[in-house]
């Protein structure tokens, strides 16, 4: 093998001696167009590395007739899984005259045993490979400690006082131990008292220093588990506007994590944006805070922050921006209505600002004469904050997306009866609804109506799930794009079938969570999916989202003006990224086949 190809991943995982052994033990073979290099269900005597030409990967049992699932070009490796598992799942056929390096199976297995990292690479799950990619990227290692840090690693021992202790006792305790909060047990549940609670109670609340601690305690705790990621604690603080979380284990407090603890692990940039949002007293200030989000996104990605954490944090910040706008624009007496966001916002998977997808749920007896005028103003406000209008008019300025609970019930039943038309699109949008302001119980009740109507209707679910087959998985474009600058549409070919497939299963299983990752966890709990497959689907979604985001950030700076934002150019990816993308697309292809069987889409 020429030195240039040995410098590609995963061969860089080999020791110098193993690389020399590999170079000495390989052959070079020539194949004509149409030759079958390795057939499905057959064992392989070699692992193949394409030197020149291209090889198609064919699924001979594909149910939808789309047998070609991949193309391997110069530098790509195939056949390793066949050697490790004893037989090949796919057929590999030459698309043109092709030269391949042949690694004898015995030599390949010897190298896998000799160089542990090399062998592990071929046996890894997609999740493990994705972690390796994160570690190799610039900045990923510098944050590795933070990304893997758990809450238990930086929590402080809780200070617990009896509920009949006085406010004076609490002040003395805070000073003695140098802490900012104490916990107390009230009626079998724990509550928290912070410095701010004491100051407010003593100075503005009319309390005396001899009053019981329970008189100023906050009973609604924001909690985390010891094994949660520390980044999760930061997201909770942002979402709930608090500076600490209480760590619980078996219904007992075992620690407290302060904001200062988290910021010692992580740049304060994200919390600064959160503070600016909370301090905003008018729309101009809120707009300025909103404009900082793209810089925050770039900072997070540059520092190697894992995609799911970035999505969680940005969803919390975007939610707070919309909630603040709602508080500023909508009259206070109407805040009992429920403002919902849908689409990627509802799933918490929006990174860069996308089209508005929102609606309003009113109580059946809510009196709001100026509802439409106020809703129009809210839509205009979001425009000034950088949220573009929805082409499909899924906005509160459209009366179709504003209504009482009874009106929403009628719409759901009407939409569900229009399985082949606009109704199905509307149901798909509503399934992802998430409350960002107002009374969340209104959405809970509407969601129950949605589940009661749709979750047990097999005919409806078949129509609902069918769009996953609308777009082919773009594996056949690897190495064979005639116009590589056009890229592949990662949204249509990869993200959509994955997200919508999980959405369909969540609807069928009456899962209330809206994010794809949370839905996958609940599907595992419900016994509808194996844990390992769900984990790999989650990693695939993160990979697709990250590749798409990186390209969109390039577009943001004018570096990729000729390529649509949902497209990525395979040829510009590193060999490891390309390998991961191929694995992830294979996973989507498998998922589509599972969904076809589950929802009987082949009929």
TrEMBL record:
<feature type="domain" description="Cyclic nucleotide-binding">
    <location>
        <begin position="10"/>
        <end position="89"/>
    </location>
</feature>
<dbReference type="Pfam" id="PF10335">
    <property type="entry name" value="DUF294_C"/>
</dbReference>
<dbReference type="InterPro" id="IPR000595">
    <property type="entry name" value="cNMP-bd_dom"/>
</dbReference>
<dbReference type="GO" id="GO:0016020">
    <property type="term" value="C:membrane"/>
</dbReference>
<dbReference type="InterPro" id="IPR046342">
    <property type="entry name" value="CBS_dom_sf"/>
</dbReference>
<feature type="domain" description="CBS">
    <location>
        <begin position="217"/>
        <end position="272"/>
    </location>
</feature>
<dbReference type="GO" id="GO:0015095">
    <property type="term" value="F:magnesium ion transmembrane transporter activity"/>
</dbReference>
<dbReference type="InterPro" id="IPR005105">
    <property type="entry name" value="GlnD_Uridyltrans_N"/>
</dbReference>
<dbReference type="InterPro" id="IPR018490">
    <property type="entry name" value="cNMP-bd_dom_sf"/>
</dbReference>
<dbReference type="Pfam" id="PF00027">
    <property type="entry name" value="cNMP_binding"/>
</dbReference>
<dbReference type="InterPro" id="IPR006669">
    <property type="entry name" value="MgtE_transporter"/>
</dbReference>
<dbReference type="GO" id="GO:0008773">
    <property type="term" value="F:[protein-PII] uridylyltransferase activity"/>
</dbReference>
<protein>
    <submittedName>
        <fullName>CBS domain-containing protein</fullName>
    </submittedName>
</protein>
<dbReference type="Pfam" id="PF00571">
    <property type="entry name" value="CBS"/>
</dbReference>
<dbReference type="Pfam" id="PF03445">
    <property type="entry name" value="DUF294"/>
</dbReference>
<dbReference type="InterPro" id="IPR000644">
    <property type="entry name" value="CBS_dom"/>
</dbReference>
<keyword id="KW-0129">CBS domain</keyword>
<dbReference type="InterPro" id="IPR018821">
    <property type="entry name" value="DUF294_put_nucleoTrafse_sb-bd"/>
</dbReference>
<dbReference type="InterPro" id="IPR014710">
    <property type="entry name" value="RmlC-like_jellyroll"/>
</dbReference>
């Amino acid at each position: 093998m020429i030195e240039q190809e040995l410098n590609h991943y995963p061969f860089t995982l080999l020791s110098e001696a193993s690389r020399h052994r590999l170079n000495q033990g390989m052959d070079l073979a020539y194949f004509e167009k149409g030759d079958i290099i390795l057939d499905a269900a057959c064992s392989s005597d070699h692992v193949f590395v394409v030197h020149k030409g291209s090889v198609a990967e064919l699924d001979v049992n594909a149910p939808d007739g789309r047998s070609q699932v991949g193309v391997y070009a110069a530098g790509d490796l195939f056949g390793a899984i066949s050697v490790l598992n004893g037989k090949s799942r796919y057929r590999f056929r030459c698309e043109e005259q092709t030269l391949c390096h042949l690694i004898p199976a015995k030599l390949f297995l010897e190298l896998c045993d000799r160089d542990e990292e090399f062998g592990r690479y071929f046996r890894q799950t997609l999740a493990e490979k994705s972690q390796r990619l994160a570690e190799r990227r610039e900045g990923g290692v510098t944050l590795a400690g933070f990304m893997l840090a758990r809450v238990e690693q930086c929590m402080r021992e809780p200070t617990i006082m009896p509920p009949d202790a006085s406010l004076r006792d609490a002040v003395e305790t805070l000073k003695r131990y140098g802490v900012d909060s104490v916990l107390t047990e009230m009626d079998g549940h724990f509550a928290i008292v912070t410095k701010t609670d004491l100051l407010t109670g003593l100075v503005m609340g009319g309390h005396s220093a001899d009053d019981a601690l329970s008189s100023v305690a906050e009973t609604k705790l924001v909690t985390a588990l010891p094994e949660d990621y520390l980044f999760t604690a930061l997201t909770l603080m942002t979402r709930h506007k608090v500076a600490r979380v209480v760590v619980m284990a078996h219904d007992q407090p075992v620690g407290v994590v302060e904001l200062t603890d988290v910021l010692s692990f992580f740049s304060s940039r994200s919390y600064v944006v959160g503070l600016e949002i909370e301090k905003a007293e008018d729309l101009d200030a809120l707009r300025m805070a909103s404009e900082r989000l793209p810089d925050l996104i770039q900072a997070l990605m540059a520092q190697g922050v894992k995609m799911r954490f970035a999505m969680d944090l940005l969803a919390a910040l975007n939610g707070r921006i919309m909630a603040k706008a709602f508080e500023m624009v909508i009259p206070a007496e109407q805040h009992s209505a429920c403002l919902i966001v849908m689409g990627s916002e509802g799933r918490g998977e929006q990174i860069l600002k996308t089209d508005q997808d929102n609606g309003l749920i009113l109580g059946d007896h809510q009196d709001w004469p100026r509802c439409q005028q106020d809703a129009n103003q809210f839509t205009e406000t979001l425009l000034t904050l950088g949220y573009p209008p929805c082409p499909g008019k899924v906005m509160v300025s459209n009366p179709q997306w504003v209504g009482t609970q009874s009106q929403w019930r009628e719409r759901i039943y009407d939409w569900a009866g229009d399985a082949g038309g606009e109704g199905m699109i509307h149901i798909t949008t509503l399934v992802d609804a998430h409350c960002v302001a107002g009374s969340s119980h209104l959405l809970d009740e509407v969601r129950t109506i949605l589940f009661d109507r749709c979750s047990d209707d097999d005919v409806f679910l078949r129509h609902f799930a069918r769009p996953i087959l609308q777009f082919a998985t773009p594996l056949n474009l690897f190495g064979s794009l005639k116009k590589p600058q056009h890229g592949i549409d990662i949204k249509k070919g990869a993200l959509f079938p994955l997200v919508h497939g999980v959405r369909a299963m969540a609807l069928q299983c009456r899962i209330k969570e809206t994010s794809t990752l949370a839905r996958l966890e609940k599907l595992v709990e419900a016994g509808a999916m194996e844990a390992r497959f769900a984990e790999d689907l989650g990693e695939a979604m993160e990979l697709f989202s990250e590749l798409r985001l990186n390209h969109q950030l390039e577009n943001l700076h004018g570096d990729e003006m000729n390529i649509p934002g949902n497209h990525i150019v395979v040829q510009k990816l590193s060999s490891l990224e390309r390998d991961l993308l191929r694995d992830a697309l294979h996973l989507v292809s498998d998922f589509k086949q599972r969904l076809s069987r589950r929802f009987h889409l082949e009929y």
